[in-house]
Amino acid sequence: MLTKNILLSAAVAGTILVGACSPAHEAKPIVRPEVTGVELQQVQITIVPESYETTGTVVPKSSSTVSSRVMGTVTSLLVREGDKVKAGQLLLTIDDRALREKVRTADEAHNEAIHALEAARNQEDLAVRTYERYRKLYEGKAITTQEMDDVANRANQAGHGVEQAQAMVKRTESSWDEAKIFLGFSRITSSIDGIVTGKMTDLGSMASPGVPLLQLEDRASRLVEASFEERMLDSVEEGMKVQVRVPSNADETAGRIVEVVPTVDPRTRTFVIKIEVPGVDLRSGQYGSVRFQSGTRNLLLVPVSAVVKRGQLTGVFLVDSNDHVIYRLIRVGRHYGEMMEVLSGLTAGDTIVTGNLDKAVDGGILTPSSSQGGGN
């Protein structure tokens, strides 16, 4: 019985071995779909200009803060925000009654000083003529030396009186001129041709020295003021051309750097440049973007049309050395016209599908006779 079981097991094992070696269980070859009629291109390193871009704000080329030099009530306000003004135009007036009284008082004091000077000169003339008469008497020994000395002393005092009167005339004249100047401060005029952009007072308000009343901006020209990173300090200079775009002008416009402020802000690590943009109507406060070529870079670029998005994935159809078509995931960067920067996923020399992408199949095999070269 035992011998019979052993023979049965051996027969079963032999059957299994024979079955395992049977040709019917060999692996079937992979059948790839053929890809035909696509355009190919070899990926190359491209030298492209490197640009630096930042943002800026439109500012007036010059501005003026109007304030009073005297204290007083605003008696007239002749402009409002948005008004255009010319240099020398009257903007507002301040109560000048006290100032006019000071002018009148200074004028009277000046006139009194002039009259005092005339009297002093008359006294001096009388003293000189008396001195001359006494001198002749003294030479004839008709008077004593003491009397002669007294007359000479009075003549000298008369001369000093004239000098003091002349000094008083100058002082009162200066006070009079100063009072008239302060009276002129009650009429505030524009120092520039510009536009009123701010009004910080009203009719009847009290004006104080140094306190702003109006804000004016030069309407002739404005600048774009931008902040550049500290590393760009040696890359920009006055006169350099840059490209500027503002909302009022969709296209980029050539601008020129007119000022570079070399001081770096320690908080933001940036410095300021000012750009003149001729031929564009700019308004203070507008946003603007500034761009200029700062060098060149070696980039791996592919046509934008070759990039295939699948949901959240971005890739291209790569053709390997065995003519297999593979959907390769890539990470992209900036656009350069019709080209796109590839940051990872491809290397120089790779071949990708650039045309008739609808015929490309992931895992397919390229039929050489039916593929078209798209150029390098």
Explain the overall architecture:
The chain is α+β, with helices and mostly antiparallel strands. The chain folds into four domains: 34-48 and 299-373, Beta Barrel (conserved putative lor/sdh protein from methanococcus maripaludis s2 fold); 53-60 and 219-295, Beta Barrel (Elongation Factor Tu (Ef-tu), domain 3); 65-92 and 189-218, RNA polymerase II/Efflux pump adaptor protein, barrel-sandwich hybrid domain (OB fold (Dihydrolipoamide Acetyltransferase, E2P), Beta Barrel); 96-185. It is 27% helix and 40% strand. The chain is built from three helices and 24 strands. The chain has helices at 2-20, 97-139, 145-184, and strands at 34-35, 39-42, 45-60, 63-67, 72-77, 84-85, 90-94, 187-189, 194-199, 206-207, 212-218, 222-229, 241-246, 249-265, 270-276, 287-303, 308-310, 313-319, 325-329, 331-336, 339-344, 351-355, 365-366, 372-373. Strands 2, 17, 18, 19, 22 and 24 form a six-stranded mixed sheet that branches. Strands 3-12-15-14-13-16 form a six-stranded antiparallel barrel. β18 (313-319) and β19 (325-329) form a beta hairpin. α2 (97-139) packs antiparallel against α3 (145-184). The radius of gyration is 49 Å and the shape is rod-shaped. The chain starts with a helix and ends with a strand. Residues 1-22 have low confidence and may be disordered.
